[in-house]
Every structure is written in C-alpha cells, then in structure tokens.
Write a structure and sequence with these properties.
This protein is an alpha+beta fold. It contains five helices and four strands; from the N terminus they run ααββββααα. It folds into two domains: about 70 residues, Single Sheet (Ubiquitin Ligase Nedd4, Chain: W), CATH 2.20.70.30; about 35 residues. Strands 1, 2, 3 and 4 form a four-stranded antiparallel β-sheet that branches.
Length: about 120
C-alpha cells in the first residue's frame, strides 16, 4: 500500500508504478488502524479524530504521517499533588478542587475559599 502523500506528490502515476518506485527507494508503508491520536506538548494537547495514520520505513527510520480532524486544547496547569492537597484540606471532590485552583491559581486561597462556603 502506498502513502496518501506520495500519491498526491505524483498524481499521474498509477498504483503499481508508485509501489514499484517506493520499493526501489527502500520505502515501506503500513496503514495503522487508529481510532484517535493524541499528541501532547508542554502547553497543549492535540486530539486527532478520524485519523488516517501511515507508518513509513525508509533507511532504518520510521516516520508517521497523520491526517484527520484536529482539535487543540490547552493543558491544565494544575498539578495532581495540588488537587489532592486541596481535596484533603477542604474536604471536597476532585472536580471542586480543580475548579477552585483554576480560579485562584493559589493553593492557600483555594482551600480558604472552599472552607468558607
């Protein structure tokens, strides 16, 4: 099977020609039947739904090509340890603790605000 991007780079080639050329170049492709792909960076999370994923091997290197519907989300900046501390000290649920920390961005203020509710 040939890569979708290779076919788009050489639109006048038929499938057999494309496969022959890729084989001569030492290139192998494999389709990955993924249902969702997630890429995390330091600040963001990219969720790719309905992905078309190809693994391409060439000269000992594996490369992945991903196409699909992309949604970018900002990562939560609240640590699990902070949430656990607020939950314990204010005797609240995880969701309530996260919400308080998101509003104040300070552990002490979050605990105090929840204790005075």
């Amino acid at each position: 099977m040939f890569s979708l991007s290779a076919k788009s780079m050489f639109p006048n080639m038929n499938n057999k020609q494309m496969e022959k050329m890729m084989k001569q170049m030492g290139m192998e492709t494999e389709e990955i039947p993924a249902t969702k792909v997630t890429i995390e960076t330091e600040d963001s999370v990219f969720e790719i739904s309905q992905p078309h994923v190809s693994k391409i091997r060439m000269q000992g290197t594996e490369t992945f090509q991903i196409q699909g519907d992309v949604e970018e989300k900002q990562k939560e900046t609240v640590s699990a340890e902070d949430v656990a501390l607020v939950m314990e000290k204010a005797n609240v649920s995880e969701a309530t603790a996260k919400d308080a920390l998101a509003h104040t961005d300070d552990i002490s203020e979050a605990i105090l605000s929840l204790q005075h509710q």
